[in-house]
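Summary: Need help interpreting a holo structure output

Steps to reproduce:
1. Submit the protein chain below together with the SMILES for zinc ion.
2. Request a joint structure prediction with the ligand placed.
3. Inspect the C-alpha cell block that comes back.

Expected: a single structure record containing both the chain and the bound molecule.
Actual: see attached output.

Input attached:
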Amino acid sequence: MVPAYDVPKIKFATGNPTWSRAVYLYELGKVTQCKKTDGIFSAVVIGSNSYEVWVSSEKFDVGECNCYVGQKEELCKHMVAVAIHAAAAGQPLSETDKEMQSEPLCSGRIGPLSKDELLSTQSAIKVVMKFIKAYRGPSRMWFAYQGGLAEGCNRLSAVFSKLPVCEEAARMVIQTLLKLDKKLCQGGVDDSDGTVGGFIESAVKMLEQFAALEPSCLGQFKILEDRETCFDWQEPLLKLARE
Ligand SMILES: [Zn+2]
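--- attached output ---
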C-alpha cells in the first residue's frame, strides 16, 4: 500500500516546528512496529513515552495519537513521523526532502535564469497558485482551508528561494505577487490569519535584496507603478526604484 501523499506534501502542509521535530523522530528510528492495514498506517512512536499512532493512507493529517497534542485532535509530530515513514517507505530522507523554507529568502546567486529553470519555475508557480483559493466551505472547515493557504505559501517560498538573482526572476516574483494580491483583494481568499499577507511581505524583502545585489532588477519594480494593492506592499520597492 502506497499512501496518497508524498514527502513534499507532508512537509509543506505541516510547516515548522512540527515538521523538523517529526523528521528528528523519524531519523532516530523512533517510528517502530509499523503496520499497514485497511487504508491506515499504524506504528508505535518512541518519545518521552511510547505513543500509539495511526494515520490514514489518503490524508496524512487524518489519524490519532494518544499524546497530549494528539488528544486535543491536533496534528502532532508523532503522526507526522508515521506519515513520513509511510511516504518514504522507511528509507532515508534527502537533504532536499528535509529542507523547510518557511519564507522566501534571496538565494544570493547572481546570474541569469536558464531556460529549464524558467519553465520549471513557471509550472511550479502555476501548481502552487491553486492552493491559494477562495473560501467557500462551512466554518468547521476553516482550519483545513488555512492549512491549504500555508501549504501554498510554503511551496512558493521553496520556489522563490531557488531563483537566481536577475531581472527575469524579479519580474516573475512581482507578477506572482500581483496575482496573489488580486486573489486577496478580489478573489475571495480569506487571509484572516495573515498567512498570504506575511508571505508577500517576506517576498518584498527578498526583492529588496535582489536589487541590492543586482541593480538592474530595479527596472522591473516599475511594473508596480500606479497599481493599487491590498496593503500597499509595493511602496518600499517603488521607493527603491525612484531613488
Ligand atoms: Zn502525538
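--- end attachment ---

Reviewer comment: Residues 115-242 form one domain. The pocket of zinc ion is lined by residues 51, 65, 67, 69-70, 76, 78-79 (CB under 6 Å).
Status: needs-info
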